[in-house]
Amino acid sequence: MTTEAASDAPVSIPGLLARNVARHGAKAAYREKEFGIWQCWSWAEAAEEIRALALGLLALGVARGDHVAIIGRNRPAHYWSIVAVQMCGAVPVPLYQDAVADEMAYVLDHCGAGFVICGDQEQVDKIIEIEDRIHSIRQVIYTDRRGMRKYDHSRMNALADVQAEGRAGHHRLEAELDRRIAALDYDSTCVMLYTSGTTGRPKGVVLSNRNIIETARNTSDFDRLGPDEEVLAYLPMAWVGDFIFSIGQAYWSGFCVNCPESPATMMTDLREIGPTYFFAPPRVFEGQLTQVMIRMEDAGRLKRAMFHHFMRLARRVGPAILDRRTVGALDRLRYALGGLCVYGPLKNVLGLSRVRVGYTAGEAIGPEIFDFYRALGINLKQLYGQTEASVFITQQPDGQVRSDTVGVPSPGVEVRVGETGEVFYRSPGTFVEYYKNAASTASTKDAEGWVATGDAGFFEEGTGHLRIIDRAKDVGKMADGRLFAPKYVENKLKFYPSILEAVVFGAGRDRCTAFINIDLTAVGNWAERNGIAYASYQELAGHPKVYDMIAGHVEEVNASVAADPMLSGCQIHRFLILHKELDADDGELTRTRKVRRAIIAEKYADLIAALYDGRSSIATETEVTYEDGRKGAIRATLTIRDVVAGQPAQRMAAE
Fold this sequence. Notes:
five-stranded parallel β-sheet; Rossmann fold; GMP Synthetase, Chain A, domain 3; 28 strands; 655 residues; disordered C terminus; alpha/beta; 22 helices; 22% strand
């Protein structure tokens, strides 16, 4: 594997910025939609903005090794802040903008942040709320001036004013900034990103310039990414996926990063930009498919019949055409007609008409969802990665894309499966350490650089593709010894537009049960079409007809699971529909929407007990967190429903 930079290759992100100014100075580097208008900055213009900000940070007293927190939505100014902080020899620490103040307090205290760059008044208010506990913060900088006029500015500045100070003092500060940039090397810290914390407190993952640049170079070459790509930066800046796409690969390849106006306008902005390189976690693709199916249910009979006719054809021949395999002339002609009538307009509505390479990762995607997009001719692929790997561990090469694997090792990455089935890797992207946590670093990464992923999987014979079963800690045994892998079943359930989230239980027990969250948009639309009145999520979730619909979906999944001799024991026997959506603010999900199983098992122990003791209903009370941070409680009586499992497949698997 490559471990050293080529003699003429930049060894830092600021170095890549200077190279891009020289190569692509007039090309678009950033776009942002504001007040309905797309604004654009070339590489040369972006470099000037970044340098002015870096000079301003020096004037404020940012020192080498300081940690600078960055909290806000995807905006060019926030990406510039990351690079400006690096120029100063400091460490950028992006935080999730939807995190509550207490979550931010832990990260800010743990990293000892001396400076915080906030996107707007909301983020500033969170810092003010906790600053009596976080004594390291010396300055707060905000991007959006709205609502900030009457705040105490003795330790607070607008980002534009910091840039103005940098420009005004450039003669005094430039020599020092140039010295700090020149001191950066391959082993300098590029960024510190915090893990999602599925099992405990988030850990600060220290990634070096070597980690990010080597990974960006190898993976850009893998997919032939170049300066003409367009990406939409809409995922949390604190997530490693956004960092590698919007900073690592963008700066290596020199392509343009487009920032939407707001989360509410993301889909509109996606259609306007038409990215050529697109990444989304499964929940985004699931949400898009849900909206498609809702629209089709509301469409006229002819349009609905045409959609289903051409989608049957697309599922049969679309992936083969995409992979350039042999397909009959008549089917190709019919598929082309479908492209004019259905696939083309649908891709345009989704904003995916120009996608040349698309990826999904973060969670396993349901095979039916994955196949739907590839059937449309969208080159959607899967990758497997972690924060500790600078994202990439495996990728799917073109022509070798399947829904049930995560591909082959990425360039420069070695992967092996241990005796217990746990997946290990080592690569140029392997993280330096967990900040202030030598014990966790040593338990995760050994002396030879092999990292324990915590995931269970195996390599397929013949293809060399990796298959991930589940988190190693979540894979267990049923009471009779059969394999228990909850995520496998949960992903099948979430294929249905009406199911937003599912949590399956069964380790050490004689059968599996499940919690279900309905999708309020999809089920609400279905209820409206079927004349079902409701006043709240709770009322709709408890409606008998909704239970009938969900029971049908669960039984269809059971039939599918029964066909897998290894996992047929994971069929669901009883389920309930939760009276509230699982929420990150309530600690039930991470900020990247991963289920926190231990917390859910503890918080809803009474409901789990009822699933297994034969009761048909249970009264419960649950604490919830409102948007303004206040706590409250909701009470409900939940129905528990029995469903049919595939008994013949169970007996066959047991034998």
